[in-house]
Each structure stands twice: as C-alpha cells, then as structure tokens.
Amino acid sequence: MSKLSGLGGRLYRGETSVDFIGRRKRWYSISALFILASIGALTLQGVHLGIEFKGGSSFTVTKAHASIEDARAAVATSGVPGEIIVQNIGTDKVRVQTAALDNAQNNAVQDALAAKFGVTTDSIDSQIVGPSWGKEITRKALYGLIGFLICVMLYLAMAFEPKMAVAAIVAVVHDVFITVGIYALVGFDVTPATVIGFLTILGYSLYDTVVVFDKIRENTRTITATSKQTYSQATNLAVNQTLVRSFNTSLIALLPVGSILFVGAGLLGAGTLKDLSLALFIGLAVGTYSSVFIAPPVLAQLREKEPAMVALAKRVNGRGVAPTVTPTPAAVDLADRPRGPRNQPKRKGRK
User: Its principal location (predicted)?
Assistant: First the structure.
C-alpha cells in the first residue's frame, strides 16, 4: 500500500508520468478491436431479449433440488414449439420461459411441470407477457437512454465546456457499445434488470470522467498565460494525477459486483442476479478504461485544433531555443584576417 501511495504522489507531482495522450492511437486501436468484436457478436448472435421485451410465457416451479434437465424434459413432453429458456433461481426454484402460448399450450406446460416435479398446478407461478407490453417497455427504455444522454450533454456543456461534453458522450457510447457486444457474446437475456444495469454504468462512467475533467480544467485554467505546457501535456498530467483515485474507486466498486456475479449467480445459482451483475461488472471495467484512455485523449484532440492552443503549442515548443545569427561577409572577412602584434603609442615625456 505504501508503494501505491508513493506512486500516486510521484504521479501527482509529475515525477513519474504515463503518456496517455501521446499514445492515444494505441488506445483507439484497442477500443476498435473491442468494437469490431461487439459488431461481430451483434451481427452473428444478436441480443437475447427476455420475455419482458418480446413477449412470452414464464413458469416458476418451487421444488427443492429442482434441476434444469428435468424442467427441459417436462416441457419437451408438452410439445411446445420454439426456444425454451430454463434457469435455476436459488436452490429450490426453476424458471421456464417460452414463446407466447395459447391457453391450451399454457395448460399443457403447467400439467407437464406439475407431473414431473410432483407439485400441484396451482403452486406453479405462471405469467403471460404480451408482445405489445414488451414493445412499450422497449420504447420507454430507449426514451430513458436518449433523455439521459441529452441531460448529461447539457449539464457538462454548462458546468465545464461543450467539447468536454462531446468527449464524455463519446466515452459513454463507447462503453454502451462494448458492454452490449460482450453481453450478446455471452448470451445472457436482456431483461429490465439489464437496462437498469446499463443506466447505472453510464452514471458511474460519467462520474469517473467528470473527476478527470475537473482536474483538467484546473490544470488548464491559465495555460495560455503561463505558456509552460501545451494543452495535451496539461491534460496528460491531470490524468496521471487522478489515476490512482480512478483505480481505487473502480476496484472498490468491482469487488461487490464481482461477488454478486461469481458467487451469487455462479455458485449459489441466483439466476435473477446475473443479468444485472454482468452488465454492472463489464460496464464498470469498460467505464474506468474509457475515463482514462478515451475521454481525455478525445478532449485533447478537439482542443488542440483551436487557434489559441495551436499558438500555445508553438510558443511552448519554441521556448528555450537560442536564436541562430548568420554572420555577415564583412564580419567573416575581419575574423579571417591574420592578427599581428599591436603597437602601443608612446607617452610624451618618456624616452
């Protein structure tokens, strides 16, 4: 811990520095690879929408040591067509999700599950979600996401500056795209809990980005008057100064979310938690990456194109270089003449 704190002090004072801004093409390339992988996953597999979005039927059976294999076998005997999703909820429940069913098919699935697990049909929790309700939920989720982005852009533009808002939104879109791509690659269902997770990671990603931007604003407030650093250099210093803080806050946030994902959903079988925890875990990690490696370089690239910053860069890069004086021909001629002994004039009164 002392080594980490010592490193944080050296980074804050500028004694040790990582060139995040100068190596931005490397970070852009890494993000491009993840984005291409996300495009491939979305194209080949797509996202698996839960019944809350596409409609369908859900059956939850409460039985100690209920297994997924028994539930699948029971539904197969009922002759229900289409894809069937079965998952454990804790240790005493199993949930079966199917496409939209009519009353006869719904009763057939309930009877098959009751016979397989030795329970009554009344004890089976059955829910039917229509496709129109799913479309309404999808529409509201999109409206919420768009409204969130607009509010964030307006706030950042007023509290900081418009180009910081643009850089922050680029980082947010980067986070959402990669998170959705990995989510599609894993194959988890998109549920309302997933949407809540996405909105949560957007807020966390922006929180980390705003912390970095606030330090950038502090470092660049009088940058044109001092002419000691270019905008990119001051931005890089700000990222290094907040690096340890970003790492610590992200690690503290990832530990409980990782516990929910790997222990709760993985070991204990809490299937209802995996949708939310996976979105949070991936989003927190990607959001931390974008707040350090994507948002500040994008901001620096936008600001360095301004005429004032271009002139500042010329002053900083040209400071400390001694002017070169070209000697005139007369001076060269005098310098090349041979020098003999100099005769001193005699003073009067001396012999």
Answer: membrane
